[in-house]
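Dear H.,

Thanks for agreeing to be a second pair of eyes. The structure we're designing against is below in token form, covering all 423 positions.
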């Protein structure tokens, strides 16, 4: 869409959706490419980086984040910055410091948009932009994409630069893409990928080659429902139906149990997040805790009790778990699960001491694997459900190809929420 079209839709709908914290009018960039939004964890030159906080993380960034600069150089147009969970530390999408965006699939009940890239997912789902940047440390691209009914693509580490993106846990952080379709997400990844002279050492990613891959006779491992832990009945039904659709697309789907259950990654991934996050943000939290979301403060303070020896041991165990899982996954082209075990909950029913939305997503970060979520249907209550495809190490191409193949047979057909209650 043109920047003017995007800005018109933002003016019409975002007063209530609250996807954006700042709108760029005129849009940044001078090309005629897609209109995109930027999670407010990424630096934009001269624009405060809020990070979901009342006190900005950076008052006056001196340069764009590398990925933002790459998109602008490629002719993409930035129309604004989107809401995030404070310091990106939360899967529900709540923000008691600044307020939470509204999941566009229910105009009557304020439901969780998913986090932490909450505003980016809402902006894409509501058609306010063609695509959006997000970050993913334990599912923060894939969770909101699934709960808002869009595509969320998380690469493995080393493909996309993190320069100019404020960290949560450097060992786990990745930059990802949200869009209404797999092709747009893949092309965004193609633009932002490639070496940066620092931690990004791979790429660039060839989106067109990935989208052209034939997935016939590919083998996917799928975890049986009874081995996924507690899964909402409607989510389980749509998951099994999605597996049947993949089979009809020519993909072999084998029901298997991995060497370790996916949710066994949940706690160690959380330990690394808290341990590294506390070391990064300790001084800020101690200074500004009175104006921060108290739940965010509590999560970071868990890291206060994780000493260097415990953190080192967790990272060593992670390396061993990666070797085990990567060896097992080599026999398949990917692993399929529901993205989230439940659909979007009403905000007033959320228990902030739990994080069910990330129970099946954290494994991709902990094991350093690429992943994508693609919409696979609506519950009887009209809420979106996502199908997650996790790929082999550094195999973003197959993840994209499988996601695109499923998209064709998914029956989703570009379904969008009814925004008449938000105008």
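And this is the sequence the design step returned. I haven't edited it by hand at all.
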């Amino acid at each position: 869409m043109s920047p003017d079209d995007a800005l018109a839709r933002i003016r019409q709908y975002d007063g209530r959706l609250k996807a954006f914290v700042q709108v760029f009018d005129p849009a940044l960039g001078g090309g005629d490419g897609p209109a995109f939004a930027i999670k407010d964890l990424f630096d934009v030159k001269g624009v405060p980086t809020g990070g979901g906080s009342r006190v900005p993380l950076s008052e006056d960034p001196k340069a764009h984040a590398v990925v933002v600069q790459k998109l602008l150089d490629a002719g993409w147009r930035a129309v604004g910055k989107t809401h995030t969970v404070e310091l990106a530390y939360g899967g529900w999408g709540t923000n008691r410091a600044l307020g939470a965006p509204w999941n566009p699939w229910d105009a009557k009940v304020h439901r969780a948009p998913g986090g932490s890239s909450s505003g980016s997912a809402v902006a894409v789902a509501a058609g306010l932009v063609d695509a959006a940047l997000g970050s993913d440390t334990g599912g923060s691209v894939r969770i909101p994409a699934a709960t808002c009914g869009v595509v969320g693509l998380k690469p493995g580490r080393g493909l996309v630069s993190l320069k100019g993106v404020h960290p949560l846990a450097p060992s786990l952080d990745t930059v990802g893409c949200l869009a209404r379709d797999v092709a747009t997400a893949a092309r965004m990844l193609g633009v932002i990928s490639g070496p940066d002279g620092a931690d990004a050492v791979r790429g660039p990613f060839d989106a067109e080659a990935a989208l052209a891959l034939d997935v016939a006779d590919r083998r996917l491992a799928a975890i049986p429902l009874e081995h996924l832990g507690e899964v909402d009945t409607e989510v389980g039904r749509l998951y099994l139906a999605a597996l049947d659709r993949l089979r009809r697309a020519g993909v072999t789907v084998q029901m298997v149990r991995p060497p370790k259950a996916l949710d066994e990654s949940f706690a160690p991934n959380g330990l690394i997040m808290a341990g590294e996050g506390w070391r990064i943000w300790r001084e800020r939290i101690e200074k500004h805790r009175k104006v921060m979301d108290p739940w965010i403060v509590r999560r970071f303070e868990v890291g206060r009790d994780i000493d260097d020896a415990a953190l080192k041991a967790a990272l060593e165990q992670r390396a061993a778990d990666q070797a085990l899982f990567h060896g097992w996954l080599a026999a398949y082209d990917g692993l399929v699960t529901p993205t989230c075990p439940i659909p979007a909950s009403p905000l007033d029913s959320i228990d902030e001491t739990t994080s069910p939305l990330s129970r099946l997503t954290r494994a991709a970060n902990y094991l350093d694997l690429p992943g994508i979520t693609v919409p696979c249907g609506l519950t009887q209550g009209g809420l979106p459900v996502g199908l997650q495809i996790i790929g082999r190490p550094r195999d973003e191409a197959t993840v994209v190809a499988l996601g695109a193949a499923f998209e064709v047979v998914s029956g989703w057909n570009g379904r969008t929420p009814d925004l008449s209650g938000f105008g």
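Two observations from my side: Residues 3-409 form a domain with the Amidase signature (AS) enzymes fold (CATH 3.90.1300.10). The chain has one domain: 3-409.

Warmly,
E.
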